[in-house]
Design brief:
The chain is built from 6 helices and 3 strands. By secondary structure, the chain is of the alpha+beta class. The protein has one domain: Sufe protein. Chain: A (Alpha-Beta Complex). The protein has a 3-stranded antiparallel β-sheet. β2 and β3 form a beta hairpin. α3 crosses α5 and α3 crosses α6. The relative contact order is 0.19. The structure holds FE2/S2 (inorganic) cluster. The site of FE2/S2 (inorganic) cluster has 10 residues, from α3 and α6.
């Protein structure tokens, strides 16, 4: 009996968490942070960018570059869900692009691609973009 009530309470709590999440974030953000397919470490990268953001969280981006094009990329972070979503979406946007094209991506473009990010998490998108630019700069 107590276990059944606990199960109901947990289900209701999860429903509320899902609802609150859907109110704050776009479906794209939720998809990107729940399944960050580009998360991880790339072995033998050609360039690495590492930045600690204003919030104290760190983002790392690894790039594989062939003939001026980004052929593969991975990221790692100890940051929030918005950073996971930002890093993952950003790497989707740059794979197959030239370094110059990657360098033109701004946090505004990234936020547009994510469709909706609460303003208090704009710095997470900026952290991702700045880390990418640091990796490109290191390579150049
Ligand atoms: Fe620190 Fe998002 S990266 S709050």
């Amino acid at each position: 009996m107590v276990e059944d009530n606990l199960e109901v309470t947990i289900k209701e709590l999860q429903k509320k968490i899902d609802h609150d999440e859907e109110q704050a974030y776009s479906k794209t953000v939720i998809r990107e942070y729940r399944n960050p397919t580009n998360f991880g470490v790339l072995k033998h990268p050609d360039a690495v960018g590492v930045i600690k953001g204003s919030c104290g969280d760190t983002l790392k981006i690894y790039l594989k570059i062939r003939k001026g094009k980004i052929t593969d990329a991975r990221f790692w972070t100890d940051g929030c869900g918005a950073t996971l979503a930002s890093g993952n979406m950003l790497l989707r946007m740059i794979k197959g692009k030239t370094l110059q094209e990657a360098n033109t991506i701004t946090n505004t473009k990234l936020i547009e691609a994510l469709e909706r990010l609460p303003q208090e998490h704009y710095h997470c998108a900026l952290l991702a973009v700045n880390t990418l630019h640091a990796a490109v700069k290191q390579y150049i």
